[in-house]
């Protein structure tokens, strides 16, 4: 008897059985780290990491405590930059050479400068990010990826990355969201009139094209000399085309507010994008990575996740329940154990006798609920992987599927509900969320711009990577602005016809 494993179950695999690179979503940022694997269980130093496993080639570096500069008197050291670089290498799962890391260095420093400024504002407002909030964010990362408790901490330690590096990023994200809530607290809630006006505008746009776009925005400090930023943008594009996940790179390097959401802008219309971006997305196939696109204030890299016509996108919505029969050891399809053979017999018998979602939930409880009975709420059938879509597409409501074998057990699925929905039409609550996002985005870009202008940034003379940030405003007075309207300079968008091309952060309040 041979067990085959043609299907992946809907629930996450256990940390010990997952592929090396897995997306770990943070609280409000898209940090990605390779999940634990059996192979990765042996500790190793980061400089000896295996190619393709998120490693940085060793290089001669300045002393770790070397001071690179100060931001309003707060020190930025070589160690800070090195740790963030290691975190990025581990995030992508790629083999990052010392030469490439050196080219990424200016943007790492720029990001750290931004975070220092935000942290200082958080402290100034006496906003306290509780340790429990950070711990919960890390726990969420682990649980969403089927990782045991403290697995993330252990993996970072194995790869020579300080846990403080991850904690600092999470603390800034949580604290900055609280700052933004304070900024918009006096502006009231979204009114029924505003929702009605947006609904009317959407009806008027019915039939026009919409694009689901993600972006990475690289600002140009001095529009007269953009060679450095262009070269950096090309380097990032090469890494993306070599397999670096777009959300991770966006979270690490994009200077748009959408970086908090992995670069995702959501569904946007052509008149919400810069004209050069519109020309690109019209022609781009789904999943492609663009060349550098020059926009007001910098360069943008875009990828198209989907295309649709406003008002017309019918999909099949389903709800599913599952029962999971666990194996006591990982499956070898060519040599199943007696326990695995017996498990298959039990699952096959259950598939014939269990009918309906309540019965499937009861069966899963009797099996110890190793996986949740509800694998994900309402699901869009067309967005499931092809194998799972094939199983569920023609499965009658209430009937059990055939046994679906995976490496650690066997799943039975049953469809509870199935119906058509036009997901291109936004509900009033979705419109309210969109309007609030826009309000938060406006507050964020205004505050960031004001804080940068008031900051005193002093970088050492032989490291000019972030010192240009302090001169952005001076350059903006004489030339084109350093950032477009959406990314932090309202003047920039007006002067150069720039369009906002980012999805604002969600209102966490």
TrEMBL record:
Taxonomic source organism: Asaia bogorensis NBRC 16594
Lineage: Bacteria, Pseudomonadati, Pseudomonadota, Alphaproteobacteria, Acetobacterales
Region (Disordered): 443-509
Keywords: Chaperone, Isomerase, Periplasm, Rotamase, Signal
Pfam families hit by this protein: Rotamase_3, SurA_N
Domain PpiC: 208-306
Gene Ontology MF, one: peptidyl-prolyl cis-trans isomerase activity
Name the record gives this protein: Parvulin-like PPIase
Domain of life: Bacteria
SUPFAM superfamilies: FKBP-like, Triger factor/SurA peptide-binding domain-like
Signal peptide start-end: 1-40
Biased composition (Basic and acidic residues): 443-472
